[in-house]
Amino acid sequence: MTTISGNRGPLIEEPLIFEQATPGRCGVDWEKPAAYEDRLGGLRKKGKIGLPDIAEPTVIRHYTRLSQKNVGIDTVFYPLGSCTMKYNPRLNEKTARLPGLSQAHPFQPVSTVQGALELMDQCAHWLKVLTGMPAVAMSPAAGAHGEFCGLMAIRAAIEARGEGDKRLKVLVPESAHGTNPASAAICGFSVESIPANDRGRVDLAALKAKLGPDVAAVMVTNPNTCGLFEDEVLEISKAVHDAGAYFYCDGANYNAIVGRVRIADLGVDAMHINLHKTFSTPHGGGGPGAGPTVLSEALAPFAPVPYVVHDDKGFRLVEHAHESEGKPCGRLKGFHGQFGVMVRALSYMMALGADGLRQCAEDAVLNANYLLAQLKDELTPSFEGPCMHEALFDDRFLKDTGVTTLDFAKALIDEGFHPMTMYFPLVVHGALLMEPTETESKATLDKFVASVKGLARQAKEGNSADAFKAAPIYAPRRRLDETAAARTPVLRWKDQAAE
Amino acid sequence: MRYLPLTAADRRSMLDAIGVKSVDDLYRDVPQAARRDGLVDLPLSASEMEVERRIAKLAAKNLTAATAPMFCGAGVYRHHVPAAVDAMIQRGEFLTSYTPYQPEVAQGTLQYLFEFQTQVALITGMEVANASLYDAATGTSEAIAMAARVTRRTKALISGGVHPHYSETSEASLRYTGLEIETLAPDPLGTEDLLGRLSPDLACVVVQNPSFFGRLNDLKVLADSCHEMGILLVVVVTEPVSLGLVASPGEMGADIVVVEGQSLGIGMNFGGPGLGLFATRDKFLRQMPGRLTGQTVDQDGKRGWVLTLSTREQHIRREKATSNICTNSGLCALAFSIHMTMLGETGFTALAELNHARAVELADKVGAIKGIKVLNDAFFNEFAVTVPGSAAELVEKLAAKGILGGVPASRLYPTWPELDNVLLLAATETNSDEDLDALVSALKELV
Fold it and tell me: A185: which chain B residues are within 8 Å (Cβ-Cβ)?
């Protein structure tokens, strides 16, 4: 049954802003400048831009309605594996908006921004102490950017050794995030894949066979994307170093081991830390994040500019390579990095402290193992437990049911959950990767378990494939035609009347 | 611990359900040598009140535009952000959602990204825009790499009017991609001869408008000359508000446009996060980096949106992707888009006019001071002046008087002594008459 308006109760069909223009209205009031002669050199714009004029109440209603078509951590359980969708404390939003921080300009004299520089330095200090690493590059804007930063430092270090044209290969496990090989490629490295063993870890023998004088680095995610700790990590790092290469650790899953494992003890040369995962800064629908990258003694001199130093005159910024005592790999981002994200992460680290951060890691691992234990009989876990912060299942439990991982995920939407990560990692068939994080209660996990088990039973009982294919029914939209979107791309609104 | 819902009893019963004695058993795959007992040497957990106090103490050590007259620009500008923007972006459904991988429950994010892409295309005068990159510095680097893919050429020329952070980021980021990048000397007077340097082996020429030194340039002749040789013209804009008053890069013939979006909705935040706007022509779409949102329909035939053309991206293409970028700047794009919606055509053009008028007034007042010379005859809301002696020292003296009096060119160009006397001054709608008077009278005293 449909309504006359097309709305479903409070769920309103909301047009584009461009379809709501009310010419003559405006969402802001600006005074007109006194008469003056412009100095635009004859480049004054002619004609209209085409932006819609809308009054403020309409704007508020528009974005409020759009928000209601989204789910977030604040509204639902969001066990998206590899993404660490933990609660984002509101305190961090408040501190980031303190005018003494948010109203600072990056090029003010350093004498006027000692507090901002001290804050960056403190954030760096926490990350260095937690990981046991001697240095951290704070400027990377995201995880992938941190990978790039680490690999740039590795490339610079190899060039400084005079091996720049010999070591041009990076080894990446097949279970890695797609960003790993993509980052290696833009650093000019060729990429070779390392297979996983039957325990879901890096195949050490295969890795050793590929190591040689042509290898610059090995990139390993630890805990890995199967949610498992690389239990041979010490053998891996030793083999990598014995071969004269550097050991890059993808720190996307650092949340599982904060305070329990020192990254330096694993023989890591570089690891990025996703502040928007482990340190709770909001994902914001896909950014902004931050990917500070901790570096070993061997790589520290090659860290990019800018960075903060502290001496008897106070805090200052090294903004240019020639001012550095090291050999920076250059500048990889504008200004001084994702400062607003650093404020949030530091607030979070201060709130939890050494004790709370360790407890977070333990609870994240406990929650994931609880899901694994509760679901292992109904679903098909890909590997033996215990897992770390996420539990990986494959689609064997759906065999011959006509229901796919995708269908199963869409059915979970109707159950009131955001689906787990699907079809990643690529090393198992039809992957379902669940990361509950530490900020979920047992009661929430139990409800989720009940729904997942119930759906699995429905699938296995048979004759339910059509119902699964129809899901979701209760979401703001049903399944969307992605093929049509790609075949005939419509990537912006156009004024039909004007064309 | 207030962020952790599990109680001791929960933990006990969950460990029992798992069938282990303690949480240590769950970490048994960590080699003994890598396990840490005890706590790291950092402060213990703290109350909300205590954390707020500690961060506020750091904030209080800064002198900022919240209290001081401020005329700094050089790629980051202070504008008034309507209260509605911050109220809307803090809705948890926006703030705490992920990249819209499950479009049925992410239509809010996808629809605002579609609207954002449209707004960016409109203000840049281009046909298509992506859902944003990290910032304009990394965006410039992406634009050069894209131009190389489109033209299958390996050389790029960067004007000396481009923000030095953008050229430095491009040079470093593309060092190992086989591209050869030449950046021209800083060009405060706008005298560089780009036309004379064009050659048919160039993938692109990168210019900024207004330039880093505030100079506005007509790019039409340059664009035509580039196109005759098959060169793409990349136009970078550090101040999007200028697009409300000045002819757009698209109108002037740009092929790729990169804009720093920080001015609208986002705030200064000591320079980050920013927002990279990225727009181009339809014909280059498949070589574009970053996320794209496209329109489609759902099973019931209702209009909706999805991420699309993802076969360009790293999660599908891995080492063959157009970029390694994974996220965009979603929440910054939302802030930008809400601010643009609040402004609309009327507000956006009025805001731009107000900025230019304020800068003209400042240029006239500062230019009238003996010893100070305004270098630009055409500018938007920022211009360069020469002062007697060191601009950096002058700025320090102004700061001692509680005025943040612009950016000395030497801050970004420390190895160019001929720029030591060059000061960049920006004025926006946020600068009051009192601010201008304070700066002018302090300059009269100090110069």
Answer: 319-321, 324
pLDDT of residue B175: 95
The answer to whether A138 and A307 have CB atoms below 8 angstroms apart is yes
Distance between CA atoms of residues B145 and B322, nearest Å = 9
Closest CA to B135 of A485, A331, A241: A331
C-alpha span between B146 and B312 (Å, rounded): 12
Tell me the DSSP string of A27-81: SS--PPPPS----STT-B--S---PPP--HHHHHHHHHHHHTTB--TTTS---BT
Report the DSSP pairing between strands A190-194 and A432-434.
unpaired
Assigned CATH topology for domain A91-349: Aspartate Aminotransferase; domain 2 (3.40.640)
For residue A423 the two structure tokens come to: 């079809």
* pLDDT higher than threshold 90 for residue B325: no
Q: Which residues of B touch A96 (CB under 8 A)?
A: 269
Here the tokens at position B270 are: 């000591």
- B84 and A60 within 8 Å at the Cβ level: the answer is yes
Q: Model confidence over B271-285: pLDDT tens digits? A: 999 999 999 999 999
pLDDT tens per residue, range A107-117: 999 999 999 99
Half-sphere exposure of B435 (CA within 13 A, CB side): 23
| DSSP secondary structure string for all residues of A191-242 | EEEE-B-TTSSB-HHHHHHH-STTEEEEEEESS-TTS---TTHHHHHHHHHH
How many beta-carbon pairs under 8 angstroms link A with B? 714
Dihedral sign, CA of A80, A81, A87, A90?
A: negative
| pLDDT reported for residue A498 | 63
Statement: residue B265 has pLDDT above 80: yes
Q: How far is CA B351 from the centre of its chain?
A: 19
Look at A283 and B98 and tell me if their CB atoms are within 8 Å: yes
Consecutive H or E run containing A405 = helix A405-414
pLDDT tens sequence across B52-97: 999 999 999 999 999 999 999 999 999 999 999 999 999 999 999 9
Separation CA B260–CA B140 (nearest Å) = 10
User: Is B270 within 8 Å of A113 when comparing Cβ atoms?
Assistant: yes
Query: Cα separation of B120 and B240, whole Å?
Result: 10
**Residue A139 near residue A177 (C-beta atoms within 8 A):** no
> How far is residue B331's CA from residue A143's CA, in Å, rounded to a whole number?
17
A355-485: CATH number:
3.90.1150.10
Q: Where are the domains of chain A?
A: 17-28+50-68, 91-349, 355-485
Write out the two tokens for B97: 């959602």
Cβ neighbours of B175 in A, within 8 Å: 152, 188, 330
CB A357 within 8 A of CB A130: yes
Nearest by Cα to A82 from A286, A197, A251: A251
Instruction: Provide the pLDDT for residue B44.
Output: 98
- Residues of chain A neighbouring B318 (CB-CB closer than 8 A): 178, 181-182, 191
* Domains delineated in chain B: 83-339 (3.40.640.10), 345-446 (3.90.1150.10)
